[in-house]
Design brief:
There is one protein chain. The protein is α/β, with parallel strands linked by helices. The chain is built from 8 helices and 26 strands. Strands 7-4-6-5-9-8 form a 6-stranded mixed β-sheet. A 6-stranded mixed β-sheet has the order 16-13-17-21-20-18, sandwiched between helices. β20 and β21 form a beta hairpin. α4 packs parallel to α7. The longest helix is centred in the C-terminal third of the chain and has 20 residues. The protein is elongated, with a radius of gyration of 31 Å. Bound molecules: adenosine monophosphate and magnesium ion. The site of adenosine monophosphate has 19 residues, from α4.
């Protein structure tokens, strides 16, 4: 057993674990994968940085102009705004002006071009009148205006990216701006999963009496795909103890995390618990949430294991709330709280005290900017259409009962894995 069992709060309800405690236990039980690799930065997009990146250079590397205009010495116009200055050369981006600039002189300069030595200010061209090789400066100005300084964005020696950062398009730009072509990232976790149940048929098979199509493998596939992991789909495994056991042992060997759905409860064909007592150190939790009460979590050898419930909505909710952060931890992603918002309820909602409800809702933004949320309808844990219609969970706290139209509720907008 891992130390998860310590988190039960016997004063509250000895048999039910809160969602927060469950998450904490999962966080305690999962660590980033140790295998890392070096990738060219384009290939590293979406991967998670394993080693900090330090800049060897300043960005910008040199003083340069933020405008097309004229580089001048501010003291030349300081006391005499209508000063006439003589153009003595041009500075282009990548092609600096290397000559001297004396009193009463200026240099034509383009955006990004290096500031000539001796100049400290750029007058934008719209504020200068040019005639032949002289300009007259109009308007009022400040020293150093329109000049970008070395290291303004990044200083030499700065830590530019910290481990745990998921590499974004902006990061590709940042890395290239400091000349970094390769970075060290965590390898993507390999996730093995299968469905259990004698009643489950795969697509293409005929339904016999009492059969249903396996949908959990498809929702899990979709969510895992969006989590950007390597997927190992082990199919449907019948409710046969030896078969499930062998599949679990094999899966734990080749994957970094194993997920099953179904068979984790207390029915006569539910073998997951008995098998894991033999081959793993796994806790069977009853979580104070709806949907998704039964959840198994632990390890088979060193491999983390999730035994999700069988009901389709419970699978999606527990995958979203618990498997998703677990995979982020495996990937090395720094923990980020999910965004929670407050919305005005448009229906009455039924709720029994005792468990936190994750009802399915559709939220919209009103013209006045306020968020409102309505229910998707029937909330049974087998009503998969509720997940398809929803764009958020309506989170109703553990101790509350029914909620009425017009009340404010907390919503958890779906992120892009749903
Ligand atoms: P179980 O936990 O195995 O007793 O399953 C609970 C409920 O979920 C039962 O109604 C099962 O038929 C259903 N169920 C289990 N696995 C799946 C699946 N892969 N796809 C769709 N429904 C499932
Ligand atoms: Mg079953």
């Amino acid at each position: 057993m891992n130390d998860a069992t310590n988190c039960y709060d016997p004063n509250k309800n000895p048999s039910l674990l809160s969602v927060e405690q469950t998450l904490q236990n999962i966080e305690n039980g999962i660590h980033p994968l140790s295998n890392t690799k070096s990738l060219a930065i384009r290939e590293a997009l979406g991967h998670v940085l394993a080693k900090e990146v330090i800049s060897d250079i300043n960005v910008p590397p040199h003083r340069n102009s933020a405008m097309d205009g004229y580089a001048i010495k501010f003291s030349d116009i300081n006391n005499n705004p209508d000063e006439v200055l003589t153009i003595v050369g041009k500075s282009f981006a990548g092609e600096p002006y290397n000559g001297d600039v004396n009193a009463g002189q200026c240099v034509r300069i383009m955006t990004g071009a290096m500031m000539p030595a001796g100049c400290d200010t750029v007058i934008m061209q719209e504020q200068a009148e040019k005639q032949d090789d002289v300009i007259t400066v109009n308007g009022s100005h400040q020293a150093e205006e329109n000049v970008r300084f070395p290291g303004e964005d990044i200083k030499q020696g700065d830590v530019v990216l910290q481990p745990g950062k998921k590499i974004s398009p902006a990061d590709l730009g940042l890395l290239s701006s400091i000349g970094i072509a390769e970075i060290t990232v965590y390898c993507k976790p390999k996730v093995a999963f299968f469905s259990t149940g004698d009643e489950l048929k795969s697509l293409g098979e005929k339904l016999g009496p009492g059969d249903i199509y396996d949908s959990n493998r498809y929702t899990l596939y979709g969510m895992l795909k969006q989590m950007d992991v390597e997927i190992i789909d082990l199919g449907v495994i019948a409710d046969k103890k030896e078969l499930i056991k062998q599949t679990l042992v094999d899966a734990a060997e080749k994957a970094d995390i194993v997920i099953t759905s179904g068979g984790a409860s207390v029915g006569e064909a539910d073998y997951i618990s008995a098998i894991l007592n033999e081959i793993g150190s796994v806790n069977f939790w009853k979580i104070a949430m709806k949907p998704g009460k039964p959840l198994a979590f632990g390890h088979i050898n060193q491999t983390p294991f999730f035994g999700l419930p069988g009901n389709p909505v419970s699978v999606m909710a527990t995958c979203y709330l618990f498997v998703q952060p677990a995979i982020q931890l495996l990937k090395g992603i720094n923990h980020r709280e999910q965004l929670k918002l407050s919305a005005k309820l448009e229906n009455n909602l039924k709720k029994a005290p005792g468990r936190t409800d994750f009802q399915r809702g559709i939220f919209t933004q009103q013209e006045n900017g306020e968020l409102s949320v309505s229910t998707t309808g029937m909330q049974g844990s087998h009503i998969l259409t509720s997940m398809s219609l929803a764009n958020c969970f309506i989170v109703l706290p553990r101790d509350t009962g029914n909620v009425s139209e017009g009340e404010r509720v907390e919503i958890l907008p779906f992120n892009d894995i749903l």
